[in-house]
Write a structure and sequence with these properties.
alpha+beta, HIT family, subunit A, 5-stranded antiparallel beta sheet, 36% helix, globular
Length: 146
Amino acid sequence: MRVHPGCPFCEGPGGRVVFEGAKVRVIHAEEAGFPAFYRVIWRDHAPEFSDLDAADRVLCMEAVTAVEQCLREQLKPTKVNLAALGNMVPHLHWHVIARFEWDSHFPAPFWAAAQRAAPVDRVVDLQALLPKVEAEMVRRLALLQG
């Protein structure tokens, strides 16, 4: 496995690990105001999506799709945001974020300024659903790893 010294995703998990496969790791990101924020991280150090061969690109996007589908089916968000910026951490990873009309930034992007405080009861209710959501993620991601 290629590892890049100083890369936070090479040197650590990058968040609370939900799934660890041979090629993909999925973590729950601790991002204030976003209780259903996940990252799909390519385990091998690759700065760009095009660094992967065709089969690995398919696997990576199937993993992103599995995480998105679990969020949509279980949490019924208003929208799911997908992003692969990599400017701060040049290690291939996708942000998969369930967004709700009540979240602190909606409809603005997660990196914008907060527009309101998220209702604590809604956040707590959503957090209570995450173990079930993550169990389904693990099940689907394990099938992809075959």
